[in-house]
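Team,

Forwarding the record for the chain on the shared tracking sheet. I've put the sequence and predicted structure together so nobody has to dig through attachments.
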Amino acid sequence: MGVTGPPGPVMDRDEVDRALARLGAEYEAIETSLLALQDHSGRRLLEGAALTGVTKDRWTSTEASITLLWAYFDAYTDALRSAREIRSRRRWSSQGDLAELTELLRGESVTVAGSATATANAPTLHGNSGKLSEQFSLVTLVDRMNELYATSLDMVVASDAVWSALPARIDLLAAELQRTRKLAHSVGVRPGEHPAGDDLERITRTLTHLREQVVSDPLAYWLPTQGSSAPGGGRPDTTVYDREARALEDVRREIDAVLTVRQDAEQRLVRLRDVLSRADRTLAEARIARGEVLAKIAATEVPVVSGPPTVLQEQLATAADYRRQAQWHRLSPLLESLEQKAEDELLRARESLTAVTQPLAVRAELRGRLDAYKAKVARHGLAEDPFLIERYDAARRMLWSAPCDLRVAEQAVLRYQQAAADLFRTPRVPDQSGPEDRRGEAQS
């Protein structure tokens, strides 16, 4: 160092003291950081883990960087100790001492020696990874240590963050999965028999594989924050975990539905029997009504009334068997289908009864209309009119005879109505109309 001379102007005593104070403070900070990194739980886990994939590659490089960090720190420590020893020789350092201190503090006076094995995997400042030793100034060495520390800490913190977050959550979800599996088996939701049972098997396989991957390759599940230079900037990637958690929640809802079926299956079966019984009774009533219509109404198209569908009764019997055998996972969809079909069958039976009894309703409507006009005729004082009596009797015979021809009867009622309307419009002789007759005309 004495041959080449100090780099630049020789430092004075105050400059030397300030430089030593700054370097001493940096030494304390670096030592504290290195000891914290050495004791970091993530680093200890990485040392003992069977790593794979990205994490294995990154840890190989990081481990070499940490080894190189300590080599740099030891060299930095020796250089700082040497500078302090030179400064402590005299209270007032000589010009030679100051020149030596200037070379030590500002020049590339620090030699870091190491084997190729120790430094082969660690990045170097200028890419000279093949060198067995490198020359640094103290300032450059501090920068280099800061760079290696930041990259090493980033890898350690990221791995530790994933290990702290995901395995515990996976274990909790796996425990919930086991409880759900037991509950599913108790209600017959099993693989190969129910889609939810197949989903549980798939979730189990996925979670097992996910945990193995997270433990061996945590960095594969780390999402760094874009643009962040802080060590450990990012978050664990929970995409797969979140997807399986949602899938398990869907399965739980399906099992809850099956449990609900188990709890109220008997009541639902009773309601189904009641609905189908009402549909059967309605169809029976429609068949009786059809016979009555055919006997009482002539020249009318009466729709045929079909019998109750036997398939619904067979499905109802199957549902009862499922309940007795506690096959709730089979009973659940069957009950939902049967309930809808039973309501549809009851509606069909009611529509059939309405269609069959339509001619009787028409006859009842014509009878009501005939009687209403008879009352109106009486209010007008025409109850004894022979022509109206004849028309009324003709319509009544047709409506109260069997079989009744509705078309002919309707024409008879219309003729009676028309005859009455014609008489209502015919002027009366005043002295032949009493007060009540005039009131009836006013009301009409």
